[in-house]
Amino acid sequence: MKKIFIDAFKCAGCKYCELSCSFYHEGKFNPKLSRIRIFKEDEYGIDNPILCSLCSYCPCINICPTNAFYRNEKGFMEINIEKCIKCYKCIESCFFGAVFLHIEKNIPIVCNLCNGDPQCVKKCPTKAIVFLEPNEFAKKKNYEYSRIVYQDFLNKHGIKIKSD
Amino acid sequence: MKYYGYAGKILRINLTKRDFSIKNLEKDLMINFLGGRGFNSKRLFDEIPPKIDPLSPENKLIFSTGPLVGTMFPTASRFNVSAKSPQTNILGDSNAGGHFASEMKYAGYDQIILEGRSKEPIYLYINDDSIEFLDAKHLWGKDVYECDRIIKKDLGDKSIQTVIIGPAAENGVKFAGIFANLMRAAARTGMGTVMASKNLKAIAIKGSKSIEVANPKKFEKIIEEIEEEIYNHPQYWPRRKMGTTRILLPVNAMGFLPTRHFTSTVFEFAENVSGEKLAEEYNIKVRGCFSCILPCSRFYIIKEGKYAGLYGEGPEYEPLSSFTARVGNGNLQVALKAIDMVNKLGLDAITTAECISWAMECYEKGWLKKNDVDGLDLTWGNEEAILKLIEKISKREGFGDILADGVKKAAEKLGIGKEIAMHVKGLEIIQADPRGAKGYGLGYVVASRGADHLRSEPFMELSDDPKKGEKLFGIPEATIRLEYKGKGKLVSYCEDWCAIVDSLEVCKNVAENMEILPFDKAAEVIEAATGLKLNGNDVRKIGERIINIERAFLIREGIRKEHDTLPKRFLEEPIPSGVSKGSIFELEKMLNEYYEEREWSKKTGIPYREKLKELNLENVIEQFEKIGIEME
Ligand code: SF4
Ligand code: SF4
Ligand code: SF4
Asked: How far is CA B507 from CA A24, B127, B217, B219, in A?
């Protein structure tokens, strides 16, 4: 199953993803209504996107006492707001802190991959987030890593790798 | 009334009394002045009486954002901060990007007005409708980075946005800036100095509100068009890779890179200090402002040598070029160190470098001797001298105390080098020789905050493409950089445009330099975002109105035609070498054309009464009449 993978070092911290997520799901602009969040520290140039990883063992689902948290027929995360008792155990249980609080409704929100058509991925200017099969992502990384391995060797022979 | 695009509220804080009020944004202000810089200039004209002392509690420090900030409009991330300037004694105003402006919108404010003066050092914590006045004794004296770290620790939240002043501001340096996201500097005209005079070290802000637009479908469509234009623009990748530093080599090649304090316009070490060099050898990561799809900021690290371990963001063309060519320094690492110091201490990089390079030229000419300058050796490019002087300026120590008032006052105080003090109206000239880019030069002459490119930024003249000038102004020379003809039209057009860009608070690189947001397009976006129905002409009129109210502020402070000029070197000495060799600045011809275009008096530089009327600036006419300023 395709997932959103993160290449944190590519992220510019522009929050364009947060804006597109909030606009798509809420019809207005507010990073604090987004299902993806960028965590930043300017001094160190840190810009780190966090969103649901669609684990196969999902602590968030397992811990939810009312079964409000579930995966729909397509395998995407959903939260049934009617059933949610606002115990926020899902927020507590997620390893990555990828369940956020909807700042207006005080309910948990989590990425549902826009039901298969992730808006944030489409809008990201740096490709720091990509929507791929795990194997495809691994291959992308493999090529990047291979360049790193070869960098010094090629430099020594005067060959410069052109950036893509 | 429900606001679209705008946050809809104005926050007014009295620092003397430690109280505040929150009022609805005035409809008048929206329609006539649009946002950001427009809001600030109007507010200053209305609320700052003429001739006040900029460092007195009477001065007001005003932050504004624009109607697109907080939305997904690409690059709408900026704010303007304005006050009467302690450096120039006229309109003070500066603009920065990053993530502060959007947070201010989410907290609910289009404008924040700071009045009075706190007795004790404080900082403000604005969290939606809650405004706290917090003790800042432990922050006083701290550099920008340290201060940011402590505030975030004290408030227990790293996601808070801040604007901060450094020790230079506290020490009364007249050209201290205000810093957002540590190194996004609103540095020109001494706005940090005003903030320090109010005993205000920082503003921390956090917001949870949403911004809605009037026509979401239309807005989305416009954004898609704009995205496509930006991504397909030929400047996209060079800007992504190098930001504005990409222009250092071309400016050098075109022969107008101010070198050794404008004694030359070609720098022999340009390659070593270029944007390319920086990108290839030092940059490790890209960073961007809020809602920007052309993230052009870069994170660098120095891995080897004396400054190994130094890292940070940027720099941009101006500081890079200032601390290399202008001061005659060919060592990129020294420049990075200088810029890091300037950021942390909270100084304006352009002005600081002008002061240092001016002193260097005086030293070369023998007007300043070693014992005049605390024993420093002010030979061009001397690392120790550059770094020591930055520190001394920030502390107002020894010779640094003289430079800390800016180059104009330093020259007056010492009685030397007045004709080579490179400023207009007290604000130091940027890194582009006006003789080699005459539209830029005219921009310095007439800009409402003193010598500055960002009021007009006639980037299109660098294309040297006569077709452009022909099409826009009916004058092919207008877009040829070494010609003087048509520059009045070019500059007034670009000034109106920049006023709109600054009022929408989008990025000038993208909106104006890359020509993504012309007046017609701006009108469309404004309507989709705010519901205000305007066409391209109406939008340009707003730009013109902003330029005129700023001019009125200057006129009221005593500025006239004779102040619209450049230092003698540019008017009398042709460029000595390089491809722009022989070029000189034809002031009178260009200025006359500009006044004609503006409908300002060629005798005095005061706007015609009819012009002010046409722009609905009746209150300016009233004011002028009251204090006896004669309009033609
Ligand atoms: S919310 Fe957290 S725990 Fe649950 S599936 Fe997503 S990443 Fe895993
Ligand atoms: S995939 Fe959709 S829901 Fe998930 S973070 Fe991206 S925009 Fe939001
Ligand atoms: S849009 Fe992409 S680059 Fe921008 S913050 Fe999100 S993940 Fe990072």
From this structure: 24, 26, 23, 18
What's B26's DSSP letter?
A: P
Distance in Å, CA A93 to ligand 1 centroid:
8
Chain A hits for B291, Cβ within 8 Å: 14-16, 19
Give Cα B15 distance to the centre of its chain: 26
**Taking a C-beta distance cutoff of 8 angstroms, is the pair B585, B441 a contact?**
yes
Of A12, A22, A43, the CB nearest to B288: A12
Model pLDDT for residues B440-489, shown as the tens digit of each residue = 999 999 999 999 899 999 999 999 999 999 999 999 999 999 999 999 99
Spatial distance between the Cα atoms of B185 and B34, rounded to a whole number of angstroms: 23
Residue B377 backbone phi and psi in degrees, to 5: -95, 105
Distance A80 CA to ligand 3 centre (A): 28
Closest CA to A34 of A45, A23, A48: A23
Taking CA atoms, what residue in B is nearest to A123? B293
- List all residues of chain B from 269 to 328 with a beta carbon under 8 Å from chain A: 284-295, 297, 299, 311, 313
Residue nearest to atom 2 of ligand 1 (CA): A94
Buried b (16+ CB within 10 A) or exposed e, B439-448: bbbbbbbbbb
- Nearest Cα neighbor of B434 from B262, B250, B260, B246 is B262
Do the interacting molecules here have an ipTM over 0.90? Answer: yes
For the CA of A60, the nearest atom of ligand 1: 4
Euclidean distance between CA atoms A9 and B554, whole angstroms:
47
Give DSSP secondary structure letters for A22-90: HHHHHSSB-GGG-SSEEEEEGGGTEEEEE-----SS-HHHHH-TTS-EEE-TTS-EEE-TTT-----HH
Look up tokens 């058509």; give the residue: A117
pTM of this prediction exceeds 0.95: yes
Interface test with A, best of B291, B296, B311, B510 (most A CBs within 10 A): B291
